[in-house]
Fold each of these.
Amino acid sequence: MHKILNVALIAHDNKKDTLVNFCIAYEAILSKYGLYATGTTGKRIMDETHLDIHRLASGPLGGDQQIGSLIVNKEIDLVIFLRDPLTAQAHEPDIQALIRLCDVYSVPIATNLASAEIFIRALNDGELNWRLD
Ligand SMILES: O=C(CO)COP(=O)(O)O
C-alpha cells in the first residue's frame, strides 16, 4: 500500500517529443503524483518541465525491466508508454515483458497518445483511487 499513486512515463525515440508535449500539457496533474521514467525519457521530461522524476536506466539497458520490477512490487499504478510501432527495438523482449506484467497485475497502460489522454483525465478524476486501498 502507498499514499500517492505513481505513474511510469516511457517513450521510444520517435515518440519522445509527443510525450514531452503531453507532460507539458498535463504538468499540473502529473505534478501531484509520483513519477518514474526510463533514463532518456526522464531526462527529456525533466529538462523541459518542472516535474520531478525518479529516473531509471535507459530502456535498452534494462529500464523497462526496472519498471516491470516496480509493477511487481505494486509501486506503479499507471503506465504511459508511447511505443514506436514502426521501428524494431533491440530490447523488444523487455518491452513485451513490461506489457505482460501490466496485464498480470491489472495496471492500466496507455501505448498511444489517445489512450494516454483518457487515462490522465481518469487519474485526475480519481478513477484510479481504488489502487490506494
Ligand atoms: O527504450 C525505451 C522503452 O522501451 C525507453 O528508454 P529511454 O527512455 O532510455 O529512451
Amino acid sequence: MTVPAGGWQVHRLVPSGTEGAPDADTATWIRAMAAAFLGPRPTPESVATQAATMAGQRLRGVYEPGDTAPVATLRSWDARMSVPGGEVAADAVTSIGVRATHRRRGLLRAVLVDDLAEAARAGTPVAALTSTQGSLYERFGFGVATWTRALRLDTRAAVFRDPGPTGRLRTLDPAGFAAAAAPLQDRARRRHPGAMDRSAASWTTLISGGVYDSSPRYAVGWSDATGRPAGYVVYGVAEGWWSTGSATLAVHDLQATTPESYRELWRHLCSLDLAGTVTWSEASVDEPLPWLLTDPRAVRFDGPREMLWLRLLDVPAALAARRYPVADRLVLRVHDPAGHAAGTWALDTTDPVAPAAGPTDAEADVACDAATLGSLYLGGVDPRVLARTGRLDELTAGAAGRLARLLAPPSVPWNGTRF
Ligand SMILES: CC(=O)SCCNC(=O)CCNC(=O)[C@H](O)C(C)(C)COP(=O)(O)OP(=O)(O)OC[C@H]1O[C@@H](n2cnc3c(N)ncnc32)[C@H](O)[C@@H]1OP(=O)(O)O
C-alpha cells in the first residue's frame, strides 16, 4: 500500500515469514534501519531474530524509484500505557531512521505524519516514543512526559537497614524467563503512570541483549514467604572483575510489585562477591533505594533526563482514560496545527470514577499547544512551572493551580522501558 505524504510515497509493510526466514522486504527494511542507526552489521541470524520480534507490528518505508532498500523507516505497534487509575491504548513509535544521504528532506516528517494519521483514524488516543535526540519531536506535538535517572550503587558500602534476606531467590533461565517475568511486569507497571506494556517478543530481546549486546545476562526472581512471585531483576556485566578486581553490573530491568521484593532484589545485587558497583541507567526520578540503606551516599544519581514523549491524538478519549484526585470542571484550549488535539475541551471530574471530557464553547481556563498537553497528561510536570515559562497560558486566575491539583498523579510517572 502506498500513501503520498509530503511528496514522498510512504509504503506500509506487514512483517511476515518465520523466525528462520523473514520475508525479503522485512529483511531489507531491517538492514536499512540498522544503517541509519549506525548499528552493528546485520547478519542473517540477527535479521531473522529481529524480524521475529516484529510480528504483528507495522513497518513503514520510503523507497526511491527502482531501489528495494528504503531510505526512511518507521516501526509502530499497539501498546498499553499505564495512566493514573487505569491505562490507555497507545501507538508506540520507534525505529525512525533516514539514510545518511537523504537527511533533511522531510522523510522523518513523511513517515511520522503518516503513522500518526493512521493511529488517529484507528481511534488510538495517544502516541508514545522514546528518542535518540531531544529536539526532534516537539514539532510533531510530542511533549516529555516521564523522566529517568541513572544510579550507581557502591555495593560494598551498602548496608541494609532491615535484616535479611527474606523470601526466596531463584535463577530464571532464558527458556522460562518470559513466562515468569511477564505477569510481574504487568503488575508492576500499573504502579507507575507512563509505564508501557511489553510485547511477547520483547522478552527474548531483554534476556538475550538483542543485536546490540551479546554479553551474558542473568535473571533472578524473588518470591515471598508464601511462595508468591513478586519481582525480578535482569542484569549483565558492564565491566569484568578481571580488569579492576571488582566487576560493575548493569541492571537492564528491575520490576518489583511489593516493597519487600524491591528490597530483596537490591540485596541480591549487593551480595555478589565479585561485583563492587551496580549501575541502572533507567531508574525512576524518585528511586527509593537510598532509603533502604544506612548510608544513602552509597547511591549516586545522575539526571534526570527525559524518557517518554507523549502526543495526544484524541483529547477526550485520553482525558477520560485517566482518573483525577479532585472534583473540578476546567476548560483547556489546545493549539495543534496537525489538527489531532486542536480544540477547546471541557474536563469534568465531578464523578471520580467516570470523568467526562468533550468539546465545549465555554471560555477556556488555560491554553497550550499539543506538545505541552502531552507533557501535562500524566501529571509529571507542574502546570504552574509551564505557566512561568509561557508554555501554558493561565486565562482565568488560579487555573494553573487548579490544573495542578487535577492532574496530580498517585505516583511519579516512570517508564523503565526504552523502545
Ligand atoms: C522514535 C525514534 O525512532 S528516535 C530515532 C531518531 N533517529 C535517529 O536518531 C537515527 C539517525 N538520524 C536520522 O535517521 C535522521 O537524521 C532523523 C530521523 C533524526 C531526521 O530525519 P530527516 O528526514 O532528516 O528529518 P526531516 O527532514 O523530516 O526533518 C523534520 C524536521 O525535524 C528537523 N530535524 C531533523 N533532524 C534534526 C536534528 N537532528 N535536530 C534537530 N532538528 C532536526 C528538521 O529541521 C525538520 O524541521 P521542520 O520541519 O520544523 O523545519
